[in-house]
Input
Amino acid sequence: MKVIVFGATGKTGDHCWRKAVAASYYVTVFGRSVEGRYAHESINKVKGDVLDAQAVYQAMAGQEAVLVCLGPVGLKDRVTLSQGAANIRNAMLEHGVKRLVFVSAAGVGDSWARIPWYSKILFRTILRNILAEHTREEEIFADERLDWTAVRAAVLTEKPGTGRVLASNTSITKTIPREDLAGFLVDQLGTNDHLKQAICVTAR
Output
């Protein structure tokens, strides 16, 4: 399967594309600095900005699935996730690409009740724009014409992955290593367990 990864140079995205390669997918990484950062990697590299609709459209040609690991460029960023999501969705529809797996945040929508108190404080204050952006991202990607899965991640850590991931919309979310989040994202490409659903993930 041909898979394009948006946000590939981010901390989660870097884990994600590497796990996709390990799973024998034909991977394209998209981003502003992929050519320099991954110059010696044997993957397909497309330099571009997710806010450039034409660049996203061109990169989507020939793809069969999409992994989105976009993150905001700052606390006041109100465009990268939402406008990037709109450009990706539009390109998918124009090229007939249906499968989409993307990172969202535990705290969006009905998952608010299952995040820890400290996350609620942060989302009500310094991270309020980021929560709003993830909310809008989900609204854009939850298009009935796409086979989407929203992965609402618990608080991300840099700890080594353990492979022990709890996917649940009833359990309390706490933390999850980025490596384990990436593994779960890639795993979703081979299953329909959470098709057209948002699912929370946290470490077991």
Observations:
- The first strand starts at residue 2 and ends at 6.
- The chain has a mean pLDDT of 96.
